[in-house]
Design brief:
heterodimer; A: alpha+beta; Ubiquitin-like (UB roll); DNA polymerase, domain 1; 5-stranded mixed sheet; two-stranded antiparallel ribbon; about 15% strand; disordered N terminus; B: Aldehyde Oxidoreductase, domain 4; Aldehyde Oxidoreductase, domain 4; 7-stranded mixed sheet; 6-stranded mixed sheet; about 25% helix; about 25% strand
């Protein structure tokens, strides 16, 4: 699995360049030369701006305030409600989605930062009666009770297995430590991830 | 006909569905993210709400100015939830709410509301009773037998101090709802443990006809006892919708407010003194306890100590209820029982250590005093738990865990619970096309309610589980009780059994002539209706239903409130043994293993039943080692209202869990007994006792975090 570095739409460096351009500071020659060489920076906000998100392979163009998180954009503006809002502070993992191949807490990323990257939500793991082996493994091992944290665990497990296709029991315990469950489904979760790992490997070989 | 029906469960060897470890029927909906929770409801034109809450633990409102908020961009409605002059008793109390086109606009507007307060003195920390002053209310002494004489005649007396702090419920789905209040129709999507009742309760407050209220809940993200009421947030959400011309409004607590106000479990602290004879038999109990559950304090229910060991002959108890300026308590999975179990089992194990007795032998002896399910059940469970925990091989006397900085220990805890079933009505329909549906105004908290209903109907009708369509989560369905007290599985299994059998008898009447036997001689087995014991005289389910023509069979079944009726029962118990390792250099406690032996009568689905026990054990580990509400007496605020600092265990923190459910005939014959609560009770005691066994000293107040463990080791606890 190739690790991609997130490439946010508005970078700190880009922002500083933008400020440098307009402020006419002394010795601006170097800054101006550098800025001219850099691609044009679009400064957005605080009002709504056009944001394009590629979710599960489909492009969506939205008009969002830059402060809207990826989680709120997915849930409130695109009706992808599989990712849940629980802590809203990147400490429980219920909102986990995969952005650019990496598991991220969607509550802790702005929607504008997720532009230009592949965003994968739990909704991409089923179609009609067809389910990803991870979902089947979760059901068969009862790795869910109220189910509110479950889609987040499914996505965290997916990203984990992509990087660790042959995990040990101990690795599963460490690898899914970024998600919380209050009902206490951890035993089922461990078994589900190990079962899915086996089945996904089988599917890849077959 | 119906009054002579025998509804009793089929004999164990004849059951085809009940007792099978089947996956839950809504598992795919939940794991795939398709299940719609209240928080996921999205309605056309929906507005988003936000709340303003009080930042002071105790204050009087002097003025509120919402004019700037009303003019704020996107705002469609503002609702006042408190008035000038009102005295606020805790931080987090809701003052006003706003509905706007986006959540961000609603939050902006809330920040523009100006509230002036007269700040009043507060008390938020009850741990030191001496500082509680007039906020402490002592109740009278409860005395039975002659404790003075018993202490005089005792061979051994053991004294100790024990404490367990306030916890918060931490439901993953916050408290809240979507409401759409039109002139003649009120649609309500709450996250609730009370689908049948909560809409009517809210209608009463809003003074609208109950007939207008349509409550909907497909799934809910955890309640644990905190989601019976519509709460003040439900009332304000409704008013916002009405003020916004009937547009739907979504309003949920944010996480910090959720942890501050949306439910907590009372604390319990006690100084306990026990007397015993040389042989280990306890002869007297004396306790001075105090507790808080918020502004209303917290009482000690009469006769609730000592826990499980109720028959101790000589007792003296005093209790002080402390009123503090923090949000009121709510029922928390087995209210009071985990606290009382911890106080009792910890004090008793300290006595066993003083007597130099093996705790298994000590508890076995004193189980003579046990209430329901009785000494024999508990003793058999204790023996089984000791065997599964490898007690004989691993247990060492207290503090003799061996050399090296990491010490291993074992400890025991007990639980008991009441169960029975709540009032529940079910409707079973058999359609001419052979399809079957069961409707109940119940809810699934994550316990597997849908699956239990489907399994009972399938067993009764001789059909596979996949043939049953279960419909719950609407107040339009026949009323069923709120899910509390481990009464849901009893209620819905009994009502479903009865409604399905009543419907089946109607089908028997229709096919009786064709099979040449009276309805009473027929049975439904393997997708067929046949003459009892004679598969050659049969008709398929489909063919039988076709004979209904255009008439659907529709029959009710009812379980009376807490009514034992042969199908269900109450009074379960269990024993848990914890196995821990404690690093005496860092103070870190690691769970190696937890053994949970539990009695729960007839088990409908062993898979979801086991999950209940796994989850309960996990909650015990959380309470024993991780979580507590931390209040700051200076600011009056909760210091850890978020999952960064309110610690919950993760997937790597819980060790191994061995669940043993009693399925022996003497348990099975009792009928269905709810399992949600009992296994959450004894774990904290077991873990705390295991830590004391490992390190040789008692860490008196849970959670057993490294700082407290090190303090105890240094003799400063």
């Amino acid at each position: 699995m190739k690790k991609k570095k997130p490439e946010p739409g508005v970078t700190r460096r880009g922002f500083i360049r933008g400020v440098g351009l307009g402020s006419g500071v002394a010795g601006a020659g170097i800054l101006e030369t550098e800025a001219a060489a850099a691609p044009a920076v679009q400064v957005v906000g605080p009002g709504p701006a056009q944001v394009t998100l590629k979710v599960n392979g489909k492009q969506h163009t939205l008009n969002l305030e830059p402060r809207v998180t990826l989680l709120d954009a997915l849930r409130d503006h695109l009706n992808y409600t599989g990712a849940k809002k629980v802590c809203d502070r990147a400490s429980c993992g219920a909102c986990t989605v995969i952005v650019g191949g990496k598991a991220v807490y969607a509550c802790n990323m702005l929607a504008i930062e997720a532009q230009g990257q592949d965003i994968q939500t739990v909704e991409s793991l089923s179609s009609g009666n067809k389910y990803h082996p991870l979902i089947t493994a979760f059901v068969e091992n009862d790795a869910q009770q109220c189910g509110f944290c479950t889609p987040g665990f499914v996505m965290a497990a997916k990203a984990f297995l992509e990087q660790n296709p042959n995990p040990t029991y101990e690795e599963v315990k460490a690898g899914l430590g970024g998600n919380l469950c209050r009902c206490g489904t951890y035993i089922g979760l461990r078994n589900a991830v190990l079962q899915a790992a086996k089945q996904m490997k089988g599917a890849a070989n077959g | 006909m119906a009054e002579t029906l025998d509804y009793s469960w089929p004999a164990k060897e004849k059951r085809r569905v009940i007792g099978k470890p089947l996956p839950r029927i809504d598992g795919y909906a939940k794991s795939s993210g398709r299940a719609k929770y209240a928080y996921d409801v999205h309605r056309p034109g929906m507005l988003y709400g936000a709340l303003l809450t009080c930042p002071h633990a105790h204050a009087r409102i002097t003025s509120i100015d919402t004019s700037a908020a009303e003019k704020s961009p996107g705002v469609m409605a503002v609702d006042l939830m408190a008035r000038p002059g009102e005295e606020i008793q805790y931080a987090g109390y809701e003052i006003a709410s706003v509905a706007a086109t986006t959540l961000e606009q609603a939050r902006d507007a809330v920040r523009k509301i100006k509230v002036a307060y007269e700040v009043l003195p507060h008390l938020v920390d009850e741990r030191d009773l001496a500082k509680a002053g007039s906020r402490a209310k002592a109740s009278g002494e409860q005395v039975s037998g002659d404790p003075d004489q018993a202490f005089k005649e005792a061979d051994v007396v053991s004294e100790g101090f024990y404490g367990i702090p306030v916890l918060t419920h931490c439901c993953m789905e916050a408290h809240g709802q979507v409401i759409e209040w039109k002139p003649d129709r009120f649609d309500y999507w709450p996250s609730t443990q009370n689908v049948s009742g909560v809409g009517g309760d809210l209608a009463k407050v809003l003074e609208i006809p109950a007939t207008n209220v349509h409550t909907h809940m497909e799934a809910m993200g955890g309640g644990f006892g905190s989601k019976f009421s519509h709460d003040r947030i439900g009332e304000t959400c409704a008013r916002l919708s009405r003020k916004a011309g009937g547009r739907p409004v979504k309003l949920f607590l944010d996480r910090s407010t959720e942890l501050e106000i949306a439910g907590n479990r009372p604390s319990f602290f006690a100084r306990i003194k026990l007397a015993a004879k040389k042989d280990g038999m306890v002869t007297a109990w004396e306790s001075e306890s105090w507790a808080t559950g918020g502004p209303g304090g917290a009482n000690l229910p009469a006769g609730s100590l000592p826990y499980v060991f109720r028959g101790v002959p000589n007792k003296r108890m005093t209790h002080t209820s402390v009123s503090i300026n923090a949000a009121p308590q709510r029922a928390w999975r087995a209210p009071n029982n985990p606290q009382l179990s911890y106080l009792t089992c910890a004090a008793m194990e300290d006595l066993a250590a003083k007597l130099n007795m093996d705790p298994v032998e000590f508890f076995h002896k004193n189980l003579e005093y046990a209430g329901a399910p009785g000494p024999d059940v508990f003793r058999a469970q204790l023996q089984k738990a000791a065997e599964l925990a490898e007690w004989k091989k691993l247990w060492r006397p207290r503090g003799q865990s061996g050399p090296g900085p990491v010490k291993r220990g074992l400890g025991i805890g007990f639980n008991m619970w009441y169960g029975l079933g709540h009032a529940s009505r079910a409707l079973t329909r058999i359609h001419p096309d052979g399809s079957v549906e069961v409707e109940i105004g119940s809810q699934d908290l994550g316990t597997g309610t849908r699956t239990v209903i489907a399994m009972v109907a399938a067993e009764t009708l001789g059909l596979p589980v996949s043939a049953i369509k279960v419909k719950i989560g609407e107040n339009a369905y026949p009323p069923s009780g709120a899910s509390g007290g481990s009464t849901t599985v009893g209620g819905v299994s009994a009502s479903t059994r009865k409604s399905s059998m009543n419907a089946l008898v109607k089908l028997f009447e229709v096919v009786s002539d064709a099979l040449g036997a009276p309805p009473g001689e027929l049975e439904a087995v393997g997708g067929k209706i046949q003459v009892k014991g004679n598969p050659s005289k049969s008709i398929t389910w489909q063919a039988a239903c076709k004979k209904l023509g255009t008439k659907t069979i529709q029959e009710m079944g009812e379980n009376a409130q807490r009514g034992p009726g042969g199908l269900i029962n109450g009074g379960a118990g269990g024993v848990q043994i914890a196995d821990v390792s404690v690093d005496t250099e860092t103070g870190l406690v690691k769970m190696n293993r937890m053994v949970a032996v539990q009695d729960c009568g007839l088990i409908i689905n062993p898979k979801t039943a086991e999950s209940q026990v796994y989850g309960a054990v996990m909650l015990s580990i959380a309470g024993a080692l991780f979580e507590e509400r931390i209040m700051d007496q200076i600011t009056g605020r909760m210091l850890n209202p978020g999952f960064e600092f309110y610690k919950l265990p993760g997937i790597g923190d819980v060790g191994e869990i061995i669940v043993h459910l009693n399925v022996e005939p003497e348990h099975d014959k009792r009928g269905v007994i709810g399992l949600g609560e009992p296994p959450v009770v004894g774990g904290i005691a077991a873990i705390a006792n295991a830590v004391a066994n490992a390190i040789g000293v008692r860490v008196p107040v849970v959670p057993l975090t490294p700082d407290k463990v090190l303090k105890a080791l240094e003799g400063r606890a």
